[in-house]
Structure formats: C-alpha cells, structure tokens
Prior knowledge:
Blueprint: E1 2-7, E2 10-14, E3 21-22, H1 41-44, H2 49-55, E4 59-69, H3 78-83, E5 93-106, E6 110-114, H4 115-118, E7 123-127, E8 133-135, E9 137-142, E10 147-151, E11 174-179, E12 187-198, E13 209-212, E14 224-227, E15 232-240, E16 250-254, H5 255-266, E17 279-283, H6 286-292, E18 300-305, H7 310-314, E19 321-325, E20 328-329, H8 333-343, E21 348-355, E22 358-365, E23 377-379, E24 389-393, H9 396-401, E25 411-416, H10 421-424, E26 432-436, E27 439-440, H11 444-451, E28 458-464, E29 467-473
Antiparallel strand pairs: 1-2, 2-15, 3-11, 4-5, 4-7, 5-6, 6-10, 7-8, 9-10, 11-12, 11-14, 12-13, 13-16, 14-15, 15-16, 17-18, 18-19, 19-20, 19-21, 21-22, 23-24, 24-25, 25-26, 26-27, 26-28, 28-29
Amino acid sequence: xxxxxxxxxxxxxxxxxxxxxxxxxxxxxxxxxxxxxxxxxxxxxxxxxxxxxxxxxxxxxxxxxxxxxxxxxxxxxxxxxxxxxxxxxxxxxxxxxxxxxxxxxxxxxxxxxxxxxxxxxxxxxxxxxxxxxxxxxxxxxxxxxxxxxxxxxxxxxxxxxxxxxxxxxxxxxxxxxxxxxxxxxxxxxxxxxxxxxxxxxxxxxxxxxxxxxxxxxxxxxxxxxxxxxxxxxxxxxxxxxxxxxxxxxxxxxxxxxxxxxxxxxxxxxxxxxxxxxxxxxxxxxxxxxxxxxxxxxxxxxxxxxxxxxxxxxxxxxxxxxxxxxxxxxxxxxxxxxxxxxxxxxxxxxxxxxxxxxxxxxxxxxxxxxxxxxxxxxxxxxxxxxxxxxxxxxxxxxxxxxxxxxxxxxxxxxxxxxxxxxxxxxxxxxxxxxxxxxxxxxxxxxxxxxxxxxxxxxxxxxxxxxxxxxxxxxx
Length: 474
C-alpha cells in the first residue's frame, strides 16, 4: 500500500499496487428514464446480481513485478571496501511484486489501470476472470493523472465496459464497485456518488475526482466505478483513511479523463500531454471576488499570460476571471484544467470571462505543448559545484514532467548524477537556476557564460517550491 499525507490528521491511501477492483450495476436505463426512489417492497428487493454477472468479465487482475538489487550493509563504507579490495558484497536480486485491478475498455484488449499499480515494473501480467493469464504491453503511463494503459493479445474479442459520460453523474446516483480488497477475493460493494468534481484532495497532480461511499479498500486500485446504466464512470484510485481501511470516502478518476488518456494511447502516443494555452491561474478568494464585484467566489483568476500564446491571441488578460468553459461553470483552476484536458489538443473552447467588470466570451485554441529540444539542454561538467547536473530550458512539456507550473520559465535541473558535485550540494530535479555569481540566468547561453569563469567563491540562487535558496560555495 502507498500512503500520502494530506494533512497532519488525515491520510490518503492509494488503493493500490497490492490489489484490484471493478464494478457493475442493476437494471439498464434509457437516456430518457427518470430517476426515482423505490416505491414498493418488491422494488426494495431488486438485485444487482444480473449486471454483476453480465459485466464481471471486464474485470481483470494486474500483476506487476520489479527486480531490486539488495545491498550489503557494508556497501559504500570506505574501510570495508578497501579491506576487501573494493569488492561489492550485494545480495541476490529480490523481486518486489504488486497486485492491482484493471478494466477492459476495448474488445481488442485495451486495459486501463492506475499508474501506481505498475510503476517501475519490469514485467506486467494480466489475469482475466476466466483464469487465463497474459503478459501485457504498456502502451502509456502518466504519473500526473495516475493512469496507465495496457494491451494484451487474447486472440479473440474480450468483454469490455463502455465509457460513460462522467459529467452527467449526479450526487446521489447509485454506483457499484467490484474489487479484491486485501486479497480476500472478488468483492462487490454498493453506494452512492457522495460528491462530484472533488478538488484539493492532494493525491496526484490531477485533482478532480468523483467521491463515493461505496466501500473501497487497498486492493481496488485500477478498478471500476460503474453507474446504473452499466457504463464505467470512474477508475478507483484512493481512499481517505486513518487506519488503511475504508471509512466511506473513496475517490475515482472520472471516465471523461480516462477517455482522453485511452484515446491518446490508441493514437500511438506513449505519453499523455495536456493542452497548452499559455496562462497561469489562481483561486478566486472571497476578498478577490468582493474586489471584482462578484457575488460569489468562483472561477480561475488569470495571473500570467505567455507572450504569443493561444491565451494572448484569444484575448485573455491578466486579471481576468475565467467563469465557464463551453458554458460549464468553473469553480477553481483545477476544474478549468480538467475541462481543457478533456476537451483535448487541437480543439477550440469558448471561455466565459469576467474582464474589467464586463462579462464576455472568447475563443481559445488548445495547442500541443512545445517539445523539448536537444539544443536547449546542457550537461554541466568540469571543476565547479554544478558538475553532474543535466539542465534544460523550460517548456510547458518539461515543466509538467518536472511537476513545475506549466508556465514556468528559465533553466531547470532535469537530472543529477549520483555522487556528483551537484548532488553533494543538494541540487534536485525541478530546481530552477535563477542566478550564478550575481548574473541572472534565463537561458542555457546565460548559464554557459556564467559557468565559464573560475572564481574562488561561487554564489548560486535556486528556486524550489516557489522559494529562493541561496548558496555560497568555496
């Protein structure tokens, strides 16, 4: 199990790289069926069993294995290494294994699971509900959304779950979950949608979840959350828990986000990219809303616009508040990011904007982020404190990969060689180099020029997590 602290008294459990989960519904409804409460005793005796039987074949178990080299307790000790002639006394390789769930979303063998289920795996196997096992090919892994797409070749069409429209899911809708909690065997649980568009959860970079009270426990990661029409509405990902068990607060990645990642994999791409518009945003606080004359604090406040970006060409300005995307209300920047991502690269969206006390509608194109170029990278070498660091000029793509704001600019550390001078001074991937010996660093050329000197005293300014760190090294 993986645990992630969300606050001092709270913990989120990724339900996870140890087990699996999936889901099924009761009676199929047409799009025009009205939702209603049970009116008679006979209606209260209805069963979910028919849909569980009908759809359970789309539930799979995902086994991941990763070989780890065990180290001797004396490894790295200068005395023992010198005493034994520099020989290494590492133990035999040890295999770490994990078990999660997956959902077949296409009869050709396309399977969705969580990225944390197969992270760092050397081998991934899939076990179908009928007992057959297949080695799978990883088509795509995306840490920011915690989704991974697998492919198996069964030689025949497989049962699959159709993706539903998660935007139509409402609080109070009945849902089912099927999984293998704690390895006890396939288990079905039911519940309702407790909340939609749940943000500020702190599970991953993607922060827009369906919340449910259907019992989800460690072992359900990658499993399905299913609505009463038998369609997949979410991929179960994590739970809120102090003990590691279910307390009725589970989170699932909406099916519309899953669809975007699946379509990317089907298109042949090996990584998922979010659309680029060239603007950064922050929450609209009650004080900001009052200052702008808004009755309610909602939307995404524009804090920065990149020159020449789609946002600038569309007419977006610093200080504007994005209120809607294609007529769907936006509560916060996370909601805006979700709407833009599910719309997809290459599309154009209508943004409802509050600009200078006037509401207007503008159109913004969603473009592919500019790719990194080898010409914008540099491996620092020589006798200096940054030797061993691979740095690059930030683009939206590299900024997202390094978990930096997508509009971040400058020269950032991409990798640090182990035991190098850069590693010894504590440099980390994602650090942005802002200054060297008083010279401002905005490009690889600036850094190369600054590093060509050989002073007796080095002064560095790094940006990490929005804070500036200054170091002086002799």
